[in-house]
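User: Structure please.
Assistant: Input sequence and predicted structure:
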Amino acid sequence: MKRNPNIRSDRKSLLAALRNLRQEIEQEGRMIYEQWLPGMARREFRTSALNLAYYIALRRRNLSGLQATLLSYGLAPLAHCESRVLQTLDAIIAACAGTPTDVADKRFFYGQKILDRRTNLLFGPLKARRRARIMVTLATDAAGDYPLIRDLIVRGMNCARINCAHDSEDVWEAMVAHVRRAANETGRICRILMDVAGPKPRTDAVLTPGPKNRLFRNSYLLLTREPPQSAGGMHFQTSCTMPEVISLLKVGTEVWIDDGRIGARVEALTGDGALLKVISVRATGERLQSGKGINLPNTRFEKLAFTDKDRRDLQFVCAHADILGYSFVQNAADVAALYQEMETVRTDKKPCQSVVLKIETRKAMQNLPDLIVAAAGRWQTGIMIARGDLGVELSLPQLIEVQDQILSIGQAASVPVIWATQVLDRYTKKGVLTRAEATDTAMGGRAECVMLNKGPFIKEAVSLLDNLLFRAQSIRNKNLPNMSAIQFSHQADLTCSFPEET
């Protein structure tokens, strides 16, 4: 990590520092780009990859002092240069030198235009008042409820997500047929994204002790390698779909289940598995269900790129979906493995479909630029901020930083970003909107797509999200405030007159 150069307050020193910074960024960025170049089959992505390399070189430095100095001179800061790194530096240098800039508007905003075009290619053109798309995870019931899917599309769903970790091919096929039919009847575009489950441990068979059906703080849970045979004893029991991870557990290891809703710690190791003590759960308790993800944030284990189930599911996904969601991708080698698997199941000569990389682990975040280049160098690519698993892997303060970094890196690469997991979660499940959820959704408007999960109020949630995203973009476009005029009731009174509800 390079330190920020000492910036003195006089303009001449500032100009010299800026020119030196630009030279360093271009040299370092070119070196990073040259390392990526051999793996980029799609020439169309090379311009974006070069800008991403410049952005990485820039962000290796602590620029807070330079930012403050630029602001003191009334010059544009570097905080919003993601899609135009060198162009921004050139414009600032020209302004500081007092010379006319040769950076035309068309060139300056080229990165944003590329991002808009790729968003259209990934999700389809949008005939709506908002720029961000809406993705909805379909529940099992949707397979038998065509009117629901049609209503979701009419209300604003632009992409339907099918999670291959649940249900069966018959259910998925019914969902796909409903989406295709509804899109055709309504004349609207609705893409289908299908996730392969990936190498993630999950709860399998579940047994509860007697009539109890909820885990509370200080409850005990036996995590086993084999499916539990009988309730017996006083503890909850569940087996693990990846029994090999149990051998990695130690006394004191933290285990989180269902996107962190159940937090536990290993109390003892047994012949059958590990005895866990619940240390974190809401006051009303939490049901233990099968098929829920298990996270081990402090335990390192090598994950395969694909499971046998993933390989079977991939054949269905490649035949039916518009977009493949790649779960638990870790590094560029995993992307190469995906490419090989997709080549194996292809039955025609058409280009491979689009891919969304789901960023769910600390390792994926650390390798994010390489992941983007490896994927976007082959396919039309998006990235998903999967805050459920990512939030378990990281502390909450770290998650706040990381989700902002993912948005910035996606913009630097002109790659669409999906803001996912627990958006409007309470509203979707309970029909009650909190102020915190509304604010979080507005933050998600910086992404190209926002994902809602399933729930009884999903139709109402889509309508609400459509309105929230429209209102959010009226004051902010990506990272840039729009600075639209505010109508004050009186010059001496700063009480705002807000527009009517739409």
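The first helix runs from residue 11 to 36.
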